[in-house]
Design a protein that fits this description.
single chain; alpha/beta; Rossmann fold; nine-stranded mixed sheet; 38% helix
C-alpha cells in the first residue's frame, strides 16, 4: 500500500481534468468546494445541501471520484449536509503527498478530514471500493459514526472468483478501447456511459497509478467488532462475488440489515437509484439519534 497516487504524465492528467471539469458542470445543486490538509496530502471535498440532519459522507468506487454522486446528490442532500470526497490516493482533485502505509493510515486520513470539517459524527456511505474504506473507518473510529452503509462491498465478505480476477488481469494487460468497453458491460450490465464519463474512465485506467491497497476479507473478530448500525446491499447478479455467500457473512455483523436485489449487477446505484436511494435515506433516518460507539483502538 506504500505508494503515492499520481498520473503517469502531464498528458494523462490533462485528459483526466478535461473530463472532470466537464462533469463538474453537471453537478445539479449548489456546492462549496473545500481542500482539507491531512497527514497524507490535500483532500478535495464537495459540500452540498443543508439542514439539521447528521451529515452524510460519501466514499466513491475505484476509478471514480466525488463527481460519481452527481445523479443522486439532490435526493441525498434533502435535509442534511453531504460531503462527497475525492479519496486520497485516487484520481481527482485531491493531491497525495505521503503514502498510506496501512489500513490504520486510511482510517486516520478520513478521521482527519472529518475533524477539519468540524464533523463530530456522520453517516458514512461507501460504494464498492469505497465500502472497504468505510469498513476500515468503522473498525477504528466507531465513535464518529452514526451509521454505515456498504453498497456492493466487493472482497470484504467473500473473495472474488479466480475467473473474475483473471478476466480483469487480461484486460489490464491489453486495455484497448474494445476490451475496456466489454469489461464495463460485463461489470455493470445495462449501464451506458456518456463519452465524457468514458474519457474519464480511460484516463484513470491508462494514466493513473492508485496509491491505495485493495480490499480483503474481514476476519471473524472484525465482523463481530463492527457494532455500528450497518446497511449492506448486494446486487444478486453482481460479478464481484457470490451475493448469497457475502450476505451470509454480512449478517454476522452484530447490528446489520442485509439485502440482495435479484437480477441487479454491480452497478446497482446506476441501475435502480429510485429503489436504493430511498432505502438508504430510510436507514440513516432510523439511526439519527443512536448513541456513539466507543473507539475500539483496532490496528
Amino acid at each position: 500500500m506504500a505508494k503515492i497516487g499520481r498520473f503517469r504524465n502531464d498528458a494523462a492528467r490533462t485528459r483526466f481534468m478535461r473530463a472532470y471539469e466537464a462533469l463538474e458542470a453537471q453537478w445539479p445543486i449548489a456546492s462549496t468546494l473545500r481542500d482539507i490538509e491531512t497527514s497524507f496530502g490535500s483532500t478535495h471535498v464537495r459540500q452540498s445541501g443543508s439542514g439539521t440532519g447528521t451529515p452524510l459522507v460519501l466514499l466513491h468506487p475505484v476509478g471514480g471520484n466525488s463527481l460519481y454522486w452527481r445523479n443522486i446528490i439532490e435526493a441525498l442532500a434533502g435535509d442534511r449536509i453531504v460531503y462527497a470526497l475525492d479519496t486520497i490516493g485516487t484520481a481527482g482533485r485531491s493531491v497525495q503527498t505521503a503514502p498510506v502505509r496501512s489500513e490504520a493510515d486510511l482510517a486516520r486520513w478520513l478521521d482527519e478530514v472529518l475533524g477539519a470539517l468540524g464533523v463530530e459524527r456522520a453517516h458514512v456511505l461507501g460504494y464498492s471500493h469505497g465500502a472497504w474504506h468505510a469498513t476500515l473507518f468503522a473498525l477504528r473510529t466507531p465513535g464518529r459514526l452514526a451509521s454505515l452503509t456498504l453498497i456492493e462491498p466487493g472482497g470484504v465478505f467473500v473473495k472474488p472468483s479466480w475467473s473474475v480476477l483473471l478476466k480483469m488481469l487480461r484486460v489490464g494487460m491489453r486495455p484497448t478501447d474494445r476490451n475496456m468497453r466489454r469489461m464495463q458491460e460485463w461489470l455493470t450490465p445495462g449501464i451506458t456511459m456518456s463519452e465524457t464519463e468514458w474519457d474519464m474512465a480511460m484516463a484513470v485506467f491508462r494514466g493513473f497509478r492508485m496509491g491505495l491497497g485493495w480490499a480483503r476479507l474481514l476476519k471473524d473478530a472484525e465482523l463481530h467488532a463492527i457494532t455500528t448500525p450497518t446497511l449492506v446491499i448486494f446486487g444478486g447478479e453482481s460479478v464481484s462475488g457470490d451475493a448469497e455467500a457475502a450476505a451470509r457473512q454480512a449478517r454476522r455483523l452484530p447490528n446489520s440489515e442485509v439485502e440482495i436485489y435479484p437480477g441487479i449487477g454491480h452497478g446497482i446505484l446506476d441501475q435502480i437509484p429510485g429503489t436504493i436511494v430511498p432505502r438508504v435515506l430510510d436507514f440513516i433516518e432510523k439511526y439519527e439519534a443512536v448513541p456513539a460507539q466507543p473507539t475500539n483502538g483496532a490496528k
